[in-house]
Specification:
With 117 residues, the protein is α+β, with helices and mostly antiparallel strands. 22% of the residues lie in helices and 37% in strands. The protein has two helices and six strands. The strands form two sheets. The protein has a four-stranded antiparallel beta sheet with strand order 3-4-5-6.
Length: 117
């Protein structure tokens, strides 16, 4: 392993470091984007699921290829029945055909009875 620079704790295999030094700026940016997309694919989907304002996540179950999320929602107006739910969603990571970015796709599955939560 070779250090990227003398003040850095980051190290990479020497063959990769040598190849990177031959690249122009645009190619280096492409390498960075590629590496970031690889890292995003390796992140567990649960780490990408966060509560939005007015939501309460009750449970998250990770499965192979998708995640089940149970959550409650509050209305903007804050009605007497708030929060609503709990509701069950299937969440999958999908790659955009437009820009190639991976985003989470939420599919509403239905209301969950409290005994099922």
């Amino acid at each position: 392993m070779v250090g990227v620079n003398s003040s850095s704790d980051i190290s990479i295999p020497e063959s990769i470091a040598n190849e990177l030094t031959t690249l122009d700026d645009e190619s280096l940016r492409d390498v960075i984007n590629y590496a970031q997309s690889l890292l995003a694919e390796r992140l567990p989907q649960t780490s990408q699921i966060t509560e939005e304002p007015g939501e309460e996540i009750i449970s998250i179950w990770e499965h192979d290829g998708y995640t089940l999320v149970t959550k409650k929602h509050s209305c903007v107006a804050g009605c007497d029945d708030c929060p609503h739910g709990p509701y069950l969603y299937r969440v999958r990571a999908e790659q955009s055909f437009v820009n190639g970015e991976r985003t989470l796709h939420w599919s509403f599955l239905g209301r969950v009875e409290k005994s099922d939560c």
